[in-house]
Amino acid sequence: MKILFIGGTGNISTDCAELLHKRGHEIIVVNRGNNPVPPLYRSIIADRKDPAAMKKALENIKVDVVINFLGYVVPDVEIDFKLFQGRIRQYIFISSATVYRIPHRILPMTENTPLGNPYSDYAQNKEKCEAWLMEKFRKEGFPVTIIRPSHTYSRIWIPNPIASAGYTFAARLEEGRPVYLHNNGENPWTLTATTDFAVGLAGLAGNEKAIGETFHITSDEALPWYKIYEEVAAAVGAEDPVIFKIPADFICEKFPELTGGLKGDKAEPAIFDNSKIKKFVPDFACKKSIRQGIRESVEWMRAHPGPRNHNPKVDYFCDKVVAAWLEAGNK
After folding, report:
1. Fold of 2-151+192-216
2. Per-residue pLDDT tens digits for 149-192
3. Sorting pLDDT into bands at 50, 70 and 90, what band is 306?
């Protein structure tokens, strides 16, 4: 098949494109040209926010499957509908597991768990995209498949509740600089390696039975956040990391911009029932443990130092949140 990636060089999409290429598919990547595209793929440079530019760039391109990793608001998917309706076999929209209703009342969550996240604009916009696309499927036969990843990480991500891209969180633990943990860090959290996620996505690409369906693709392994911190600390050899346990309500009151990612995501328990993806893709299985995945990320970024590994957002909020906590007379 010919598979077009809208975004194909990011945290999740990189391993997905690589696996589909290894399975013999032709990969075409459309992006703005900010990140290099592997030479084995066809690269098309266009701004996906510019309908005219997208139309011109893709007017002579024939593909079977489109996978959109960069759809965040309804106008994004409206552009794609106008471009691809009647031209493709399948359109895969990468949504998010943050769309599920908060608080999570029944675990594990299935694809039929009610939607509605009152804290996250990101989640609300993803939900609107899903609804718009499914309406086009029902009324006009647009061949959409919706996928909801949860916290999916690659070799360039170290999982944490602030911003996982880069090595900064691990470096803080390694160097004895303070970090914070929401509440007591006891809520269970699912982390999924991108190499495992890619198996599920690859099995859905071109799968006619997946048209009109929604899937989450996650690991079956969930650890409480304090255990995840322990795994990162162990991976970098930090024997006595400086971790402040701070109530999520305090963090969000002092720093409202963190509410969507915390109350709207990381502070909730996240456990998923993966029966549906396993039924549609029998070879899907998450083989990489959290321990193994985090150690691989640490090793890779240590071997590839560079500016990409630094995430100023992690430093900023770790410093600010801990300072606010101490200034309020806490320890």
Report:
1. Rossmann fold (3.40.50)
2. 999 999 999 999 999 999 999 999 999 999 999 999 999 999 99
3. confident
Distance CA 30, CA 7 (A): 6
Tokens of 185: 């860090």
Could you please report the per-residue DSSP string of 16-54? HHHHHHHTT-EEEEEE-SSSPPPTTSEEEE--TT-HHHH
> What secondary structure letter does DSSP report for 322?
H
Strand-strand pairing, 90-94 and 214-216 = unpaired
CA 322/CA 331 separation, integer angstroms? 10
What residue ranges do the domains of the chain occupy? Answer: 2-151+192-216, 158-189+222-269+291-327
- Identity at 121, one-letter amino acid code: D
Q: Are 27 and 201 in contact (CB under 8 A)?
A: no
Q: What is the pLDDT of residues 94-106, one digit of tens each?
A: 999 999 999 998 9
Architecture of the domain whose range is 158-189+222-269+291-327: Alpha-Beta Complex (3.90)
Element (H, E) at 169: helix 168-175
Asked if the domains at 2-151+192-216 and 158-189+222-269+291-327 fall in one CATH topology, the answer is: no
